[in-house]
Design brief:
The chain has 16 helices and 48 strands. By secondary structure, it is mainly β.
Length: 939
């Protein structure tokens, strides 16, 4: 509930005052609203009730779309009689005003309103004031209220809950991917969606997903680095837009708009946990707007989130100690007495332990007839996830000492500790001129860094050094061997200079601009203990024959669980980009909008590319519009794909179906190894996008949109299979010199085709004494790999393509994300009470991991109840996944399975493996029901 004090006045002025008092975006036609007189509103109302009261006895209706966005339209009865000519830029989105006006008289108020109104340029169009329905491409505007109603605390999960085309898959024991999940749109890769902040290009995360998960071989954007409490709205453009915004915008564009209120704010706290009693999460938000005199604003947000880990691991069913004997029925007979009492809950499989602090500042100030603006975003997040448990019977990772026992007798669970720091800042100046033109000049800097530290670990080879070179006893070795080391760090930064010019002519609108970018990427070496193999020199075991038959002579180098990066793998690279674009829109006739864009980009490395887009919207009737677009696009190789290189331990499915450890090198394309087998430089991916859609206003309160899309991508950059020895003599020689058992490379190696349909229907009505808003949204998508190929003339050309790109690599692209997502939600408001109920269907998906398993569709139920105890204080309670739904149990790619018995035949443990649920892909996770409660105080 909000306290209103709005006097009777012309409707456009009343709507501006409403926006100021609620700090809420309202979309309406300025020219239409000024024809009507609004009623006074005084007292406490919900926002929608206040609008309806204010617009009584007019021909205007207030409605809420599927994402909570308020808009004002001519009602159905009078719409057919309205002959007002449609003009470019008529619709305006009114935001909270920078200052109130005390002017008297209609003319003075109108002048002030015209000066202070903000016509937003929604992503997908550079024409300020274009309404969503007029756009030739589908755009979702997700309000802050819609995000909050999901009950989630992370932006990625919020988007997944209300935007069916958006996926935010979970995986486990996948190194840095545990801490920074891949976010995708329309089933494509994380790096094929462009993210903006206030319309400015957002930098990517420094991590690249090289383990086997959704998005393997790609680098996306950290969606959770921006606190949800700082967001005013999120705009999701579901169409290719590389000709407008540049590289990466193949699947679409996500524009995060920060809050800009000059007053008010909130303080909120939320606590929740899973039904299993773990994953306790505390989220604290503080947001406040400040006026900078009469001419500006500063809006700041602080966020702290503390999330405890979850664990859904199965029991450790294999032998942890040496000496077990396999019986005829496949069970294992324990020999070491410690086997009988050894703990079996040795793994930790679930969400990582995480603590994040975030700060956001958004500001603007009227200066010299224009606006000086800027923002700062900062977050730091500490995560701890677990690797594979190293038991006693692990000669390489937990070597045997001179007493015949392992360095860590009861085994150890290595932890991967990551610190992710993310900072960006922007400042610019925008000026609008009297001739309906504007000029915008801005600078944006962004940087993401991640530092890895491995704890609760050992370097097995160092134990041999302590034994053979320093002569330490077993007691001293166990007491002094280091258990923690800094593995390595990565940094990615982006600097962008933008100059944008727009001009509205009588018959069309024109935009043009230029962009200068500099990408920088660094890999920082780890400590020697994290990467060095102390008992091997140039492939030769230096302690051979010194054990006297007791203990290890050659153990694994580097820290177990997550090894380090040596100075040889350090990277410090940069790339410059220059771009120019031109963009135009026009009403060719009263009911048809045509837009076109042309963009030129030149990249240091692969050269230049030119892309275009042509789109249109035809208002067939007052209630039916057809829209469509055709475009070309591209995605430049990311800095990580160009320059990332390291050697890591990856667990892959072995011949008997169990997971085995393998030392895998990821080699950059300009490395000595890659060049020795003729692997060429990476070039850009190229795409062709086609979309066709219909918008149907069935009644004043019922709206339906359907959009078909087709996305063809050529020369898609993929990471190869782990290529071992025996495939090619050239490759064999290169691997021996590198010290890796297998190698993987980034290649332009696939052509894909994606087709799908987006469906959105909304119905706003009254019932049960209040208002009811229903939304049915769905996405159906399918991606096919239509061609796989290896570089002509390279050392890989003689290797069968199915060996270079395994069936699993193809499966990740085609099958690891749900082919359909459906969301049905209902929002009920009555006086001080709000209830949000949502049903989310996640369609079936298939994972190939040794074998193949198709996971069935599941429906999750979310509910949130919010009640205003006072005018400012509200309490909420809710549940995500109310009925404790889990994905299907895992039947493939498991590990540590088995049945162990004692000498009497008593079963010690019997387990199908530690991975109860797929660790590779879990669209909604596998934590079960999450229950929460919270309180919020609004200033």
């Amino acid at each position: 509930m909000v306290q209103f004090d709005i006097k009777a006045q012309r409707a456009d002025l009343a709507l501006i005052e409403f926006a100021k008092q609620t700090e809420q975006t309202v979309v309406f036609s300025f020219e239409l609203a000024k024809q009507y007189q609004a009623q006074s509103v005084f007292g406490y109302y919900t926002q929608l009730d206040a609008l309806n009261t204010m617009l009584q006895n007019t021909e205007l209706d207030a409605v809420v779309d599927q994402n909570g966005l308020l808009s004002v339209k001519l009602n159905q009865i009078n719409r057919n009689d309205n002959n007002m000519k449609k003009l470019s830029g008529v619709s305006a989105a009114v935001l909270p005003l920078l200052m109130a006006t005390n002017s008297q008289g209609v003319n003075a108020q109108e002048q002030a309103a015209q000066e202070k109104i903000e016509k937003i340029a929604i992503v997908g169009s550079r024409v300020a004031g274009r309404s969503v329905e007029d756009l030739p491409v589908p755009v979702d505007i997700l309000s802050a209220e819609a995000l909050e109603n999901t009950g989630q605390t992370e932006v990625g999960r919020m988007l997944q809950a209300i935007a069916p085309s958006f996926n935010f898959s979970s995986s486990s024991i996948s190194d840095g991917t545990d801490a920074l999940r891949p976010a995708t749109l329309r089933g494509l890769g994380p790096d094929q969606t462009l993210v903006l902040i206030n319309g400015k290009r957002r930098h990517q995360a420094s991590i690249i997903h090289i383990n086997t998960s959704v998005g393997r071989g790609t680098a996306g954007t950290d969606m959770n680095a921006i606190p949800a409490a700082s967001i005013k709205r999120i705009e999701v453009l579901r169409d290719g837009a590389a000709a407008q915004y540049g590289s990466d915008a193949i699947a679409g564009v996500i524009n995060i708009v920060l809050k800009d209120a000059e007053e008010g704010g909130k303080a909120a706290i939320n606590y929740g946990q899973y039904s299993e009693g773990d994953g306790e999460t505390v989220n604290i938000d503080f947001n406040k707007g400040f006026a900078l005199g009469d001419e500006g604003y500063l809006n700041t947000t602080l966020n702290y989130r503390d999330r405890a880990p979850t664990n859904r691991a199965g029991l450790h069913g294999s032998c942890q100690f040496y000496g077990c004997t396999e019986l005829d029925d496949g069970t294992l007979l324990a020999s070491d007495p410690r086997e009988l009492t050894a703990p079996r809950d040795t793994f930790r499989i679930g969400d990582a332990d995480s603590q994040q602090f975030a700060l956001t500042v958004n500001t603007g100030y009227e200066l010299a007839g224009g606006e000086l603006y800027g923002f700062i975003t900062y977050s730091t997040r500490d995560n701890e996830s677990a690797a594979f448990f190293r038991h006693n019977a692990n000669a390489g990772g937990n070597p045997v000492l001179q007493d015949g026992d392992a360095v860590i007798p009861m085994g150890f669970l290595p932890k991967i500790n990551t610190t992710i720091d993310d900072i960006s800042y922007n400042f610019g100046f925008k000026k609008e001129f009297d001739n309906d033109s504007s000029l915008d000049f801005s600078y944006t800097y962004g940087e993401n860094s991640i530092d890895y530290t491995t704890s609760d670990t050992i370097n097995g080879s160092y134990a041999n050094l302590l034994r053979y070179e320093q002569g330490l006893s077993v007691e001293d070795i166990r007491a002094t061997i280091p258990r923690e080391a800094y593995a390595y760090g990565m940094e990615l930064s982006l600097q962008t200079l933008n100059l944008d010019y727009t001009k509205d002519f009588d018959d069309y609108s024109l935009a043009m601009g230029a962009e200068l970018r500099t990408d920088e990427y660094r890999i920082l070496e780890g400590s020697e203990y994290a990467y060095r193999d102390y008992d091997t020199n140039n492939g030769v075991n230096i302690y051979d024959g010194l054990s006297g038959g007791v203990g290890s002579e050659n153990a694994s180098g580097g820290t177990q669980g997550f090894g380090g990066s040596s100075p040889d793998s350090s990277v410090d690279e940069s790339r410059d980009v220059i771009s120019f674009y031109v963009d135009a829109e026009t009403y060719v006739i009263d009911d048809v909008i045509i837009s076109g864009a042309l963009r030129y980009d030149n990249y240091k490395g692969f050269g230049d590319t030119v892309n275009f887009k042509l789109a249109g919207n035809w208002a067939v009737t007052d209630d039916v519009s057809l829209r469509g677009a055709v475009s070309t696009g591209f995605r430049a190789p990311s800095m990580q794909q160009l320059y990332f290189n390291n050697i890591s331990t990856q667990f892959v499915v072995g011949p008997n179906g169990d997971l085995i450890a393998e030392e895998v090198g990821t080699f950059r394309n300009d490395s000595t190894l890659a060049q020795s087998i003729g692997i060429p430089k990476l070039k850009e991916e190229k795409s062709e996008n086609l979309s066709l859609g219909i918008v149907y206003n069935v009644t004043d309160n019922v709206n339906v949109t359907i959009d078909y899309y087709s996305i063809d991508i050529d020369d898609r950059i993929v990471i190869s299979n782990r290529l071992g020895k025996g495939l090619s003599s050239t490759l064999d020689a290169a691997l021996v010199s590198s010290g890796a058992g297998a190698g993987q490379f980034f290649l332009n190696g696939a052509d894909t085709e994606t087709q799908g349909v987006d469906f959105v229907a909304t119905w706003n009505t009254e019932g049960l004494g209040g208002t009811l808003d229903f939304t049915l949204a769905a996405n159906f998508t399918e991606t096919d790999v239509v061609d796989l190929f290896t570089p002509a003339g390279s050392g890989l050309e003689t290797i069968p393509v199915e060996d270079v790109f395994s069936a699993q690599e193809t499966s990740i692209i085609e099958e690891w994300q749900p082919q359909d997502r459906v969301n049905l939600s209902a929002l009920y408001r009555i006086e001080d009470l709000t209830v949000n109920l949502s049903l989310n269907r996640y369609g079936e998906y298939t994972v190939q991991d040794g074998g193949r398993q198709t996971y069935g569709a599941e429906v999750l139920t979310d509910v949130k109840i919010n009640y205003y105890v006072t005018d400012n204080l509200s309490l909420n309670i809710g549940a995500n996944n109310l009925f404790d739904v889990y994905p299907d149990k895992n039947t493939i790619g498991n590990s540590r399975s088995g049945t162990i018995v004692d000498a009497s035949g008593n079963t010690i443990v019997s387990s199908t493996g530690v991975f109860e649920y797929s660790r590779r892909s879990a669209p909604f996770g596998f934590n079960g029901a999450y229950y929460y409660l919270g309180a919020e105080y609004r200033f």
